[in-house]
Amino acid sequence: MISKLNIDSTAVLISKSLSDFEQEINSTFNSFSRVFLLMDANTHLHCFPEFQKVFPSNIKIEPIVIPAGEQSKSLNQAEKIWQQLFEANATKRDCLIALGGGVVSDVGGFVAALYKRGMKYFVFPTSLMAMTDAALGGKTGVDFLQIKNSIGVFYASEKIFIATDFLKTLSEREYNNGLAEIYKHAIIYDRSLWDDLKSDVNEFQMLQKSIAVKASVVNNDYYEKGERKILNFGHTIGHALESYALTNNIDLLHGEAIATGMIVEAELAFNAGLLSQEDKSEIMNVLSNKFGKPMFAKVDFNLMTEFLLQDKKNTHQICFSLPTEIGKCEFNQFFSLEDIKKAASSYIEWL
Ligand code: GLY
After folding, report:
1. Are 43 and 151 contained in the same domain?
2. Which among 343, 344, 339, 336 has a CA at the least distance from the CA of 314?
3. Of all protein residues, whose CA lies closest to atom 3 belonging to ligand 1?
4. Could you tell me the residue range of the domain that residue 255 belongs to?
């Protein structure tokens, strides 16, 4: 069974098996003469064979394969993809499809948005991170000067085909990477999803609920003038940690960074009197049991502050979105470096 919802102009289709989409794929792509299929080395190996089984054989697929990993979210990689599109003379009668996780969908959307001022773009997310967050809501971009997502543009894909059978290709670490965003959706917006996550939840329902949170928030505020900012819970600290990790060659996934970010930011919310002791402790315990207690204690806070100060969300102080109870969140909460240092120290003591 296929479930459908819309995020702005994008149709999001969710099903357990890629083969469920066969008819929809036929009707969607039969007007294109060629499709450019962007993959990374992993999805080329593990997901492309499945994709070929359901894709109409009369439409020519031009594969574009990029290296796996965050390093591919760069202007340099985008330029290489544009070069391939130009060399193959891609036109408005063609489209770009991203088959991959968040890196592939972020760089793919960015390339599609700017190629000849816009090429039709579709996504088949293959990671939990891309299915529940990265591929949804039109944010595309690359990292620049080691700052995450610092060059980017909103660009809506035409359709997103979410087939959960791709999740079987993920390692536990990759799976948990996406799970962190699902926990975030629960904390900021959906107490019932939080309760599901604490019990033995059915994966498909969990994903549907999580996508519904993202859809609802983005549909209220596509260009992030207000409410969409709540999706940044955990991300102010999380992005600074990721930039720190990138600069210091530390292996850290986005979800791992934001799991730590959510714990430190829950502490900050508690210190500011926004969040009760009970909800703070529940958030900290559930997240640290699920995601471990990663590298934060080893981070030199003074070096990390440089990245906190560069965050796109800042104005005069450092900007956060913080939970006020499990299932509710407030955006535009500003704090000084001293406040943040205090929350970070309490977290390190608690570790
Ligand atoms: N990942 C946060 C957002 O889409 O706004």
Report:
1. yes
2. 336
3. 231
4. 172-202+217-350
Place of tokens 């009197």: 273
- Residue 314: phi and psi, rounded to 5, are -70, 150
Shared-domain flag, residues 98 and 224: no
Same domain flag for 177 and 142: no
Rounded Cα–Cα distance for residues 320 and 274 (Å): 12
Beta carbons of 307 and 239 less than 8 angstroms apart: yes
All residue ranges of the chain with pLDDT < 50 are none
Span from the CA of 316 to the centroid of ligand 1 (angstroms): 22
Report pLDDT for 315.
58
pTM tops 0.85, yes or no: yes
* 41 belongs to a structural domain: yes
- Asked if the structure places residue 211 within a domain, the reply is no
CATH number for the domain that contains residue 328:
1.20.1090.10
Do 290 and 181 belong to one domain?
A: yes
Q: Which atom of ligand 1 is nearest to the CA of 137?
A: 4
- Is 139 touching ligand 1 by the criterion CB < 6 Å? yes
278 burial type by CB count under 10 A (0-12 exposed, 13-18 middle, 19+ buried): exposed
The answer to whether the beta carbons of residues 14 and 162 sit under 8 Å apart is yes
Counting the structural domains of the chain, the total is 2
Q: Are residues 336 and 244 in the same domain?
A: yes
183 and 112 inside one domain = no
Q: Mind giving me the DSSP string for 227-265?
A: GGGGGGTTHHHHHHHHHHHHHTT----HHHHHHHHHHHH
For ligand 1, whether the C-beta of 137 sits within 6 Å is yes
Tokens 């070929």 belong to residue: 52
Q: Is residue 346 part of a domain?
A: yes
Single-letter code of the amino acid located at 76: N
Measured from the Cα of 231, ligand 1's closest atom is 2
Q: 253-289: per-residue pLDDT in tens?
A: 999 999 999 999 999 999 999 999 999 999 999 999 9
Q: Which atom of ligand 1 is nearest to the CA of 214?
A: 4
